[in-house]
Amino acid sequence: MLSLSGLANALSGNTSTSLTEFQNIIKTWEESRTSTSFDPTDVLTKLSELLEKEHEHYAASDPDPFEDRHPHRVDPECQLGQLLKHFFKKESLVQDLFNNYLKDNYWIQLGQTRRDSFLVNVAAARLVLGILPALQTSVIMETSGLVGRLYSWVENAKEPLQSYATGLLAVASELSDVATDPENREKNGRIIPIILQRLRKYQSEMMEEVKQGQDISSNTTTNPKIDSPNSNKFKRPFSIFGKKSPVQVRRSSNEALDSSSALDLKKPPDDLSNPMRHNNFSKDNSSLNQGVLFENWSNSSWAEMEAQIICHFRIHPLTLVGKQVFILRLLSPLAEYQEFLSFTVDSGVLELISNYLKVRETRNTRLAFEALRFQAGLFCHKRMVMEWVTTGGIPKLIAIPRPSIASTAVSQVLYYIGCDDDSMEKVCLLPHNLLEDLVKYVLWLIECSHDSGRQFAIMFSYLSFSFRVFLDIFDQKDGIRMIYNTVNTLPILNHEDNRILLSDDQEYLQRQSVRQVMVAYKKYTDAQLALKAEQLKRFHTREFVESRVSVPNYKPNRLSPEQSQECIETLVNFMPFKAKWPPMDKFIQLGGITMCLKVIAIAYDWSCTGRSETVRSALDCLCIAAILPKVQLQLCERIELPDDSKTVGFNILLSAAEGEIIQDSSEVQKASLSVLINCLCSQKGYSSNSSSTTNYCSSSFLLKKKLANSKSAEDLINKVWDCVRTNNGIMALLQLLHTKTPITDADAIRALACKALTGLGRSPAAKQIMSKLPIFTNGELQQLVREPVLLDKRGEHVKFQQYAHDLLELVSGPGLY
């Protein structure tokens, strides 16, 4: 078997030789460029060949197909990144490439009117395609006249310039300034029918070759210059079939919580060379479960599977696959615009896409990947989503083999489907076994896909939670554990790995992963809350059964903030003290509460986008979970943070309420106060009106059980009160009563803080402390409740007045307010 070092040598060869050769070619160009008779075609071609060879080596490391960062940032040791960095240091070469060599009158400008610039343009366009991973897209738009020439070449040029121009125009069209320019929109209207017709033609030719038994995947094989002398090694370069493979691979994990590993074929998992890929950061190596990883390719040879996992295609010589890839790339950004819909009428675009998804026939997931990206662009239009779903599109998606780059693109398409409720309703009406297969596919993506595929799959999952049928299957497949696993072992959440030096990219990407998981937790707990509240209301309230029809399984059931609070109150009033709530019990057992608290605590040091949303989502999860006594007890315990410090859960909540975690975020403050209220104001189990089962405790056994629960509940609430009090909770909440900013939420924050104090005021120790404070002894609280901070928020101010009245009665006695 080939070792990891052998793999690196087989794929990369002598890296210093490549860089030296690259530098020598540029030196030749520098020495010759000033001559009016200098033909740059040969130099540009040699540079392209080197870049294409290294790009193929880079692709062999299985990078995220949606990765758009400079290869050097993804893997600082990759040779492609080094070559690209060296290329862009030669500003004169870059300028000549865009300003001279891409002009169709290059030779005419030099006075050689009889020479055709076609070959120079081809070599230049090919080189630009090679440097795209490091090129700022705006350069194409800002180069005078280049976009116009690209349109002309796409429409009229000979191959391979036609296809190369198509690929470059695809990159430029990703910029809205290019795609929405009135002149370009007119040109798009002219070329879209042309390239669609070409695409059908090329697809027909390809399918004909398939019928004749030709291997289409051969169109994706690598540059022949690197297929020797190590061709045997390159055809099967990964030692993933042995028991001692040092490579951490993408696999399914039905056995352990920390098994969401990624197939990083370049680096061991603890190296973190590619932050777009989430690895299992355990240092233990694991061998590949071949039956799981290649379950869709079990009868395929490695030579066949290579085209699916690496799936690189030739730019030169241009192949049938390459022509189709460039066209699909151009169609993808254009499909997002409303004007494109007119070209889909009676054009069979979705059928065209469906043909590419038949990977078993085409044996090429690169084309499937590009077709799925095109489909994702089309799915910006609800009509296209609905048409795809109603014409049997879901089975075609989940038939895409995995692992493959196409399966990663499936996650994006599923996300767009999840964004449309009408289409999701149609999906929910599909046969149950098909829905189970869909959920299994999504959970595989969450566990084993590239980082982008994982994130899209998580987003689809939390969009589907509001549909009961999906939620039930998700729970049956243990989906919440798989989502938990995606971030459980991240160094930013683990003090054992806190000493690992992460780059800015790695930290940012890990934080974004945490963000998506926290949002998924929030959506999941909201969905479970709605179901549990409905069950309890049906059991305890006859009027509910008569007045409300439950939401069908195929309809979305989303809660507004007011409805969510109503459901929480239902659970507080009706759920027994020691009741089982399996989905939330599983969430707690996994460590979800500790993770939420860690995320809230460490977010103080974050500066990335979405920080407030991450913390708010974690707090919303805790707000629902805090209904359960075991969670309230857990909040009283000390947790270990990634910086090796330890703190009590309630201390973290109080810090968030005071605005210390996220400054100037009233939503975070209100969310943390809501969690505190659910803990401090709990009356479950011992209050005379807290349980609907009190009137039915007629037997001595039930009475003893009731008394035992009451005693447990009383011990719990006393522990919660003491924990909040000893963590400076009284002063923190009292300080919030003086809140005046932000002005739009100040009245709501004051009302919530006062409500939390009302719950805490039932504690004899807290009551004694508060009775001696100036705010109660000198009439300061009475002054605060006179006028709202903002007149438009009188409703919130009325709540503040009511809670202040109750608090004064608790602390100072009745009749003093």
UniProtKB/TrEMBL annotation:
<feature type="region of interest" description="Disordered">
    <location>
        <begin position="209"/>
        <end position="284"/>
    </location>
</feature>
<dbReference type="GO" id="GO:0016567">
    <property type="term" value="P:protein ubiquitination"/>
</dbReference>
<dbReference type="GO" id="GO:0005634">
    <property type="term" value="C:nucleus"/>
</dbReference>
<dbReference type="InterPro" id="IPR033270">
    <property type="entry name" value="VPRBP/DCAF1"/>
</dbReference>
<protein>
    <submittedName>
        <fullName>Uncharacterized protein</fullName>
    </submittedName>
</protein>
<feature type="compositionally biased region" description="Polar residues">
    <location>
        <begin position="214"/>
        <end position="232"/>
    </location>
</feature>
<keyword id="KW-0539">Nucleus</keyword>
<feature type="compositionally biased region" description="Polar residues">
    <location>
        <begin position="250"/>
        <end position="262"/>
    </location>
</feature>
<dbReference type="GO" id="GO:0080008">
    <property type="term" value="C:Cul4-RING E3 ubiquitin ligase complex"/>
</dbReference>
<dbReference type="InterPro" id="IPR016024">
    <property type="entry name" value="ARM-type_fold"/>
</dbReference>
